[in-house]
């Protein structure tokens, strides 16, 4: 009897296997990095829109731990609200997020993703709120690309958990999910 893996488990396994050959090369130790990423931001109740962010990382203990500050921009535009109900909850549809996080990476050049937790400030339209952040991701060094050992690829999945109140309703918990990929520069 053979066991068949679900599609999401296959994608995760393939991602982990693709990063395995990168562990064979010696990677210099860097103390800091910046990255620019783009992807999708799913604002609970509003829909999914494009999202871009910049991150600064400071590595501790050879890259196994790091602290991160990030700034992201996007939109909370909702096609459902604008076409079906003709409602507008905010004066503008702008989204701005900033996060301060702490992360642990069991294998900085290995196959396992890092885990991250922290706090975020989220400005949806003209309303601001604070959130807790949990997430995971992976930094994949690309040694020798363009003749440099300081470039890398990274992907992140974050969950911003916050209490929200709309139109004088009772507060409720929402999960805003972001998924991004980008280029990382170590120095």
Textual characterization of the structure:
It is a single chain. The protein has one domain (27-186): Beta Barrel (Porin), CATH 2.40.160. It has an eight-stranded antiparallel β-barrel. Mean pLDDT is 82; it is low at 19-28. A hairpin with a 4-residue loop joins β2 (47-60) and β3 (65-75). The protein has two helices and eight strands; from the N terminus they run αβββαβββββ. The chain is mainly β. The protein has helices at 7-19, 79-85; strands at 32-43, 47-60, 65-75, 94-104, 114-124, 127-141, 151-164, 172-186.
Topology summary:
Layout: H1 7-19, E1 32-43, E2 47-60, E3 65-75, H2 79-85, E4 94-104, E5 114-124, E6 127-141, E7 151-164, E8 172-186
Antiparallel strand pairs: 1-2, 1-8, 2-3, 3-4, 4-5, 5-6, 6-7, 7-8
Quick structural gist:
The protein has 187 residues and is mainly β.
Strand content: over 45%
The helix fraction, in percent, is 10-25%
Number of DSSP strand runs? 8
CATH class: Mainly Beta
Taken together, the total number of domains comes to 1
Provide a count of the helices: 2
Summary keywords:
elongated, eight-stranded antiparallel barrel, Porin, 187 residues, mainly beta
């Amino acid at each position: 009897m053979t066991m068949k893996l679900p599609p999401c488990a296959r994608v995760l396994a393939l991602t982990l296997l693709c990063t395995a050959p990168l562990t064979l090369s010696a990677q210099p130790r860097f103390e800091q990095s910046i990255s620019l990423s783009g992807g999708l931001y799913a604002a609970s109740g509003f829909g999914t829109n494009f999202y871009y962010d910049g991150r600064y990382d400071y590595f501790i203990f050879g890259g196994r731990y790091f602290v991160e500050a990030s700034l992201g921009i996007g939109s909370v535009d909702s096609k459902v609200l604008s076409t079906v109900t003709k409602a507008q909850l905010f004066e503008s549809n702008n989204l701005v997020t900033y996060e301060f996080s702490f992360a642990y990476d069991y294998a900085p050049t290995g196959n396992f993703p890092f885990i991250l937790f922290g706090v975020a400030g989220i400005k949806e339209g003209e309303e601001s709120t604070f959130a807790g952040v949990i997430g995971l991701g992976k930094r994949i060094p690309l040694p020798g690309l363009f003749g440099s050992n300081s470039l890398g690829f990274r992907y992140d999945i974050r969950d911003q958990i916050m209490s929200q109140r709309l139109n004088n309703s009772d507060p409720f918990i929402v999960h805003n999910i972001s998924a991004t990929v980008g280029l990382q520069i170590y120095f």
